[in-house]
Amino acid sequence: MAHGFTVDAARALTGPEWLAARRVAAAERLVDAPWPTAGENLWRFSPIERFDPQRYRPERTPPPQWHGLDPSLASKGVVVGGFGDLDDGRFRDLLGSVAAASEDVFTVLHDAFLTDGAFVHVPAGVVVDAPIVVEHGAGTEGTAVFPHTLVVIEEGAEATVLERVVSDDATRLVVPVVELVIGDGANLRYASVQQHGSGTWQVALQRAHLGRDATLRASAVALGGDYARLRSEARLEGEGADSDLLAVYFGDGEQTLDFRTLQDHAAPRTRSNLLFKGAVEERARSVYSGLIHIRPKAQRSDAFQTNRNLVLTEGAGAESIPNLEIEANDVRCSHASTVGPIDEEQLYYLETRGVPPAEAERLIVLGFFDDVFDRLAVPALVEPLRAEVDQKVGRLSSGA
């Protein structure tokens, strides 16, 4: 299939020599890499048959924007910047190393046209109290862009990172990669928010590697896009590592919101907990497929996985497929999933107490999300997110 994602196109992008060499090597691998098809299990229930690489042309990805860093933190070695700050060979070697452990054709495509990204480094023992906010641009009509974020939290350090990507209704492809490296005893709170326009296709990977006694609290908020896919993965590499993965999503119109998750326990006494909650209305669809993998060395691990879905109107739909792969014999694991409409008994209860039907539905939907709202990695997201969900439910009730 002819398209613009060629070796020559990758070579034409400007930037430092070390990154240019990396791009060309990935572009050469992309030549023989097959695009996914609807027949592959990894793309089951997705509209991947509609993906046409000829619709997009690679463009230099807009550099990320971030809030200014407190000078006192900079003096402690904290770095919040772009790839120009990857002046330490160790960090250059880390770039792509986490994503490479879960490679697919889109991560190869990402590497082939990667021009810049966000780099966050918190040295050992340093605590950053205020959230580090990173905002990514999404390019122009007909383009493909490749936002990248590398977060390195060293031993005993602590930080909060909030990422946002917003786009208008133009046709575009956005392929983000987020790599989270969390050292021994470190603590990272991470949240991502995507509010794409109706013409955006997103295929994203967010992957974390956790050291001994490390903690990750990761939240994803997905509200936009034509098709928006997120792979959210955590590999618990060190004994005692602890990971929470949460997501809130709400689809309307013709949207498809697609989530594939992995809780990968590779060490003993590790813990993971996942809670993904979403609602769909009109003709929107959601897809959830998750795997808990307990490896042979991960004895005495705990892993829990929950996916709940509200289907608010006829014509909308949700798929939920939880999976377990357990190779150790002393573990605790469970998974649960539900797909269904608003509970008629709850609706009846509110209506018999004088609450109008539209208001009753709104209250039930907001209540459905309350437990995940309360656990978001960045509490400042709760009220804006609640307002966004309220607005979507209100449009449905009013027939707008």
| Multimeric state | single chain
Order of helices and strands: HHEEHEHHHEEEEEEEEEEEEEEEEEEHHH
**Which whole number gives the mean pLDDT?**
93
What count of helical segments does DSSP give?
9
Give a short account of the largest sheet: 12 strands, mixed
Structural class computed from helices and strand pairing: alpha/beta
Number of strands: 21
What is the CA-based Rg, rounded? 21 Å
**How would you sum up the global shape?**
globular
Total domain modules: 1
Low-confidence stretches: none
Distance between the termini: 41 Å
Beta-strand residue percentage: 35-45%
Query: What portion of residues is helical?
Result: 10-25%
Describe the secondary structure blueprint for this structure.
Blueprint lengths: L6 H6 L4 H14 L26 E2 L6 E2 L4 H4 L4 E3 L7 H6 L2 H4 L4 H8 L5 E5 L9 E5 L6 E3 L2 E6 L4 E9 L5 E3 L2 E6 L4 E9 L4 E11 L4 E8 L4 E10 L5 E10 L4 E10 L5 E10 L4 E10 L7 E10 L5 E10 L5 E9 L3 H8 L5 H17 L8 H17 L2
Parallel strand pairs: 1-6, 4-7, 5-8, 6-9, 7-10, 8-11, 9-12, 10-12, 11-13, 12-14, 13-15, 14-16, 15-17, 16-18, 17-19, 18-20, 19-21
Antiparallel strand pairs: 2-5, 3-4
Helix pairs in contact: 2-6, 7-8, 8-9
